[in-house]
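re the bet — no i am not wrong, look at it urself. input seq straight from the record:
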Amino acid sequence: MSAVDESLSFNVVDVLLREQQKTTAVEKFAQLHDRHELPLQARYYRDLIPLGTPQPGQQYAFEVDLDACSGCKACVVACHSLNGLEQNEVWRQVGSLHGGCSDLPVIQHVTTTCHHCLEPACLEGCPVRAYEKDPVTGIVRHLDDQCIGCQYCVFKCPYDVPKYSHDKGIVRKCDMCHDRLSSQEAPACVQSCPNEAIHIRIVDKQRIIEESEANQFLPGAPEPGYTLPTTLYKTARPLPRNLLPADYFSARPQHGHLPLVFMLVLTQMSVGAFAIEQLMALFTGWFRDGADVVRLSHLVGALLLGLTGLAASLLHLGRPLYAYRAILGLRTSWLSREILAFGAFAALAAIYTAVAWLDLRGMALPSLLQNGLGGAAAVVGIVAVFCSVMVYADTQRAFWNSTYTFVKFFLTAALLGLPTVLLISLGAAAASDELSVRGIMANYGQWLCGWLLVIGLAKLGFESLVFVHLQKRQHAPLKRTALLLTTELSMTTFKRYFFGFVGIVALPCLLMSESVVRSENGFHTLFIALAVGLMFVVLLIGEMTERYLFFRAVVAPKMPGTT
């Protein structure tokens, strides 16, 4: 071997020997960790979490230093990664507040997640008790196994915290990484923040209650008095008085919730039909004097409408097989009360219909019992509709306030109950030798159409009151709703009023005219039946459209500037 080859071989061996003596970054980290020369996680983040556990009258809470938050969203990424969230699922969000003046503009970043409220609306509204508030730590946890995916907590929470998972069919939310806290380790969002803008603190519950009176939670956030959020936002800088969420002047349509649209409209139609049947029997004798076939047909049709509406509600659940749990929250949840009330209404209505069938078969039961069953079914149905009103009014959303919702729901019941009674009566009369279509229209049809006209115009007028808010200076939620109805949802709004006018004004006026009712031309009987059927369909489409706008045009409260 030449001298050059020997020198080259020696250099290669020397290089390899030196490389073998080096350690990788992972090996170096392991060696330092074994010698305790690195700040361990528990030591390094110890000042970001409390030293002890909450005492009676206290609980854990997030503390956010607004001066330190840069909006980098490291907390969002860490929360998403640690909890294994779906691609579009987020438990922590970062928004922004804008204000100041042209010479000194102010942009304030805000990181936000569940506030683990003292009186959590999600827990109160859940019909299956899928939430619990830890009596020691105060952390509000969601019990995934108990959830049926009704999403009512999404409506109830004013901070847009619970997130619905379509893949899992349940709702999920932040639990303050309670398992990490129990091991004296900071939550993922706390550890990941490079500026240490997020801490875990122990707060006094009484202090949270007192501070909520001044409504000083955070500019642009929903008022804290509803749920008493515990998150503390602090800053050493004076915030400008005109600080508003970045998206304050924008509004986007919400989810349409079609199963709930069908459920609400059909159940209210059914209740209206049963209530009107009782009123007509009480004041006119109709349905009781020589109209047994019509009465039974009406009851069967009204019952099927109600059952169809209740069946449609199951399509809204992420886990419909567990719907039987929905009355567990009866003590606090209006949704549980609505479900129980409509269940009782369906049972009473079915029994009342069965009694009418027995009466037609010659096995007549005492009239007092029949009247009692019919009256009970109507009253319980009205109670059920009231529970439906409270389900939405209890969410504290402006467009769903108790007055708006009460008038809309009950007028829908009356408005759709009237043509239901008339249509089913005409259908039964067509198959009866004792009754005639023209006779029903002359004796009762004009009266029903007159009331339909009055109630329908009152409902359309009441719905139009929301457009008054377009003239308001303040960009409040109802103004944003009115803007949605006249911009992005303008075509749907037009359809609502078009179908409303045709079904409430044009067709009833036509059916009330003397030429239609009293003409002896044979074609007029078929024409009347077709006109009543068309009126029924048009009114149903109009009310479905109104209820669709009820969900789409509502402005959902949330934390400022978040998407």
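see?? The beta strands are 58-65, 93-100, 105-112, 131-133, 140-142, 163-165, 170-172, 198-204, 232-234, 244-245. told u. also Residues 523-552 form the longest helix (30 residues). so pay up
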